[in-house]
Amino acid sequence: MARIPFVYNVRNLGQRRVSTALTALGIALVAWVFIFTLALAGGFEAALRSTGSPQNAIVVRSGSTAELTSIITRDVAAAIESQPEIARATDGQPLATAELLVIWNLPRRSGTTTNVVVRGVGPKSTALRPGVHLVQGRMFRPGLDEIVVGKMVSQRFQNCVVGDKLKLSGREWNVVGVFDAGGSAYDSEIWGDVELFMPVFDRPVYQSVILRLDDPSHLAALKKRLESDPRMSVTVHREDQFYAAQSGMLAQLLRTLGIFVTLIMALGAVFGGLNTMYASVGARTKEIGTLRAIGFGRGAVLLSVLAESTLLALLGGLIGCLLALPVRTFTTGTMSFATFSELAFRFEVTPMMLLSGLIFSALMGLVGGFFPARKAASMEVVDALRQI
């Protein structure tokens, strides 16, 4: 079957510049919203996924899916830190730390309030998180009323820059440093001395124990020993998997809501494409009749109109992808179901998301062009040529 040259479709789009531009912009907007939704959910997932390390294990109370609902007593924490699978620091001590987690309500710079994670950390906490580094000030000194804050907290909340005093649990704390955790959930936390936080917040127990494995393959042995000990009643997780699991439900909810909105908008874009292609077919009745008369079959006409509609949609999708690239610089915050506190993160736009946007645009073009294409293909040669 002879095919109509593709350049014919390109020429037709160029002749209908206004309708082509308006339809392409409509599809571009839909593609942008589609990619925006994926970038929002992807950024949230990336923040939690990057929080943990595959070399670390986290121990929480049996049945707990988040640190906030876990309780680890001092005796159990000491027993966990004595396990032989734990790597040693340069001083010969176990590379492990027991930590406290509390939620505190703080005012944003905008004037509204929300919950923030306040984490009590120990001397080995920073060594267990090599991705965390100070960008301003210094680290807090144990035993003193000093704290350091994540960069997202510093940017989004009042009294959270170096030199400020922040009131927590009826006590003023000096903000002495700001740390960057590479976009992980730690960027949305406040850190201080765990041994000082425990009496101040009236929390006599820890929430978790973080430890570095001497060999990641030893996780199974450690897990079996600790979880089978009835005196401990704990669960052992690989740290990166533990935090990644916390992102699943909310990320899926964000995608579902976003795709629902996108599909509603896509209906409008498809109808716009239908009108454009119907108008194009109606204006080219003579051309289509001539093409049929010189030997091009119904299938060739059908494929030609579908190709034109898809090309128009891909043009809009490409514009949408270009408009979506700056989304990578956006920062937002949402409630984490695991801690019931704000988690700030940067949107993540990946090549796969852009490709998904183009594929979605092409599908809109195929749907929007099918009925006009079928109409063009069903024209009788004699009826079409009568328009000449």
What attributes characterize this protein structure?
ten-stranded mixed sheet, single chain, elongated, alpha+beta, 11 helices, 388 residues, two-stranded antiparallel ribbon, 48% helix
Short summary of the structure?
The chain is α+β, with helices and mostly antiparallel strands and 388 residues long. The chain contains 11 helices and 12 strands. It is 48% helix and 20% strand.
The amount of helix comes to: 40-55%
Per DSSP, what share of the residues sits in E-state strands of 2 or more residues? 15-25%
- Alpha-beta content class: alpha+beta
Major sheet summary line: 10 strands, mixed
Instruction: Give the overall shape.
Output: elongated
Number of helices in the DSSP assignment: 11
Q: How far is it from the N-terminal to the C-terminal residue, by CA?
A: 26 Å
Secondary-structure element sequence?
HHEHEEEEHEEEHEHEHHHEEHH
Low-confidence stretches: none
Mean pLDDT: 89
Radius of gyration from the alpha-carbon trace, in angstroms: 30 Å
Strand runs, count: 12
